[in-house]
Amino acid sequence: MNKSGNNVIINNVIIAKQGRKGYMRNMAPIDFKSRISEKTGDIMSIASNEVITIPPTMSVIGAVKTMLNHGFRRIPVADAGTNHLKGIITSQDIVDFLGGGQRNLIVKNKFKGNLLAAVNGSISEIMETNVISLNVKDSLKDALDTMIKENIGGIPVTDGDGTVKAIVSERDFVFLLSGIITGKTVEGYMSKKVVTAPSDMSVGAAARSMINNGFRRLPVLRDNVLIGIITASDIMRFLGSGDIFDRLVTGNAREVFQVPVSTLVKRDIIFTKSDIDLGEAANVMLDKNVGSLPVLEDGELKGIITERDFVRAMAD
After folding, report:
1. Where in the chain is the domain with CATH 3.10.580.10?
2. pLDDT tens readout for residues 69-87
3. So what's the architecture of 186-315 in CATH?
4. Residue 307, class by beta-carbon neighbours within 10 Å (0-12 exposed, 13-18 middle, 19+ buried)?
5. Are 303 and 191 in contact, with CB atoms under 8 Å apart?
6. Tens-place pLDDT, residues 51-70
7. Half-sphere exposure of 74 (CA within 13 A, CB side)
8. Which of 72, 188, 249, 280 has the fewest CB atoms below 10 angstroms from its CB?
9. How far apart are CA 38 and CA 44, in angstroms?
10. Which segments cross the bilayer (predicted)?
11. Looking at domain 60-170, which CATH architecture does it have?
């Protein structure tokens, strides 16, 4: 696959592009496997090469602010001089650290419970150092296979010297499906057993639920009616915001975590139906800049489809 002007060329078929929001609809179903190039170096055709890295010496709160300012869910950690990959940090790691997961033990053991000292410690304390990465010479299939095998949503791309050159995410694969007819529906790939959060659940309990289940998001219900979705990034944004952060590190942290999760629901509900083609659902996801779509039928939550599910669909 390669990009030409405002078009994308896949297997010599030009598809008119509508910007990052998606493609013009093709009239016939497209074979998924024909879109997953095995050609050397094709990973760079969809990876974001405007990647921002942070040094391992940056403070935890500095990393949080960087992620919030740029709207990132993950950010590679690289040597300040060489930009060689050293680690990666995600919004889930931050929630784990601040919200009582395994990383929170660092606060208790190393910093004797002093959260202010902990968040001013270096990101190297909590980053993932065993980083899965791709090479600039890898193919789209290499990236897809790695995401599925390692169960990760974003992978740094490096050159032969280990210098960070780009990052590829599940969203980039959603981009490949956006607006086309795939012949596959949301129902075939959505998760039907959905873990939800009641609207009065505390932020702390929601954070622990995400950490324990390995989720990045939780649908929020009030009287069995969906009122929104919260994500790990929402919790990170809440905990890292000015007044809340001040209270978190200088006051009663338990009080902060007792805030009901419904207060974090800010945006309108963007949903889909189970019989919608995956390509159409992908287009909605990109257009509305969301990482998941709850599946509603007659107002009832029947499932949820996430970026990860689109990656699974392409791997089938």
Report:
1. 60-170, 186-315
2. 999 999 999 999 999 999 9
3. Roll (3.10)
4. buried
5. yes
6. 999 999 999 999 999 999 99
7. 21
8. 188
9. 12
10. none
11. Roll (3.10)
